[in-house]
Protein: Mitochondrial inner membrane protease subunit 1
Organism: Thelohanellus kitauei
Amino acid sequence: MDMLKSRSFTTVIFSAFCFKNIFRPYNCQGPSMEPTLNNKREDDIVLVEKLSTMLGILRVGDIVVVIDHDEPYSRVCKRIKAMEGDTVYNSKTQKYVKVRPGHVYVVGDNEEISYDSNSYGDIPMGLVVGRVYFRCWPLNEITFF
């Protein structure tokens, strides 16, 4: 019986560690990532993994959760368009820009209305919370990314 309690306790501690440090759910709101997320104007709940960010293995095309550029207590979903050292076309200024070292260029899939790096420039990698791994809500749109 003590062995079972010990295993249960270990499992709970390990799960809590993983939930806090590796995986975390986030609510993606708004139309900036349509049609990939929130396509039916319903908020999507996504599972974000933080290992890619911690290990520095994010790639162009990954959907990420970032700390909002203007509201540090808010989180937003965006797609990585360019990594440090890359040159990328800014659709708002209609100029090419080079992403600074330690920074990333993020955009919404719905670029016409998205407030993103096209408006405020590249962002420090420290603002990237993690990579969207899985959409778990709504249930009829479960998706791995």
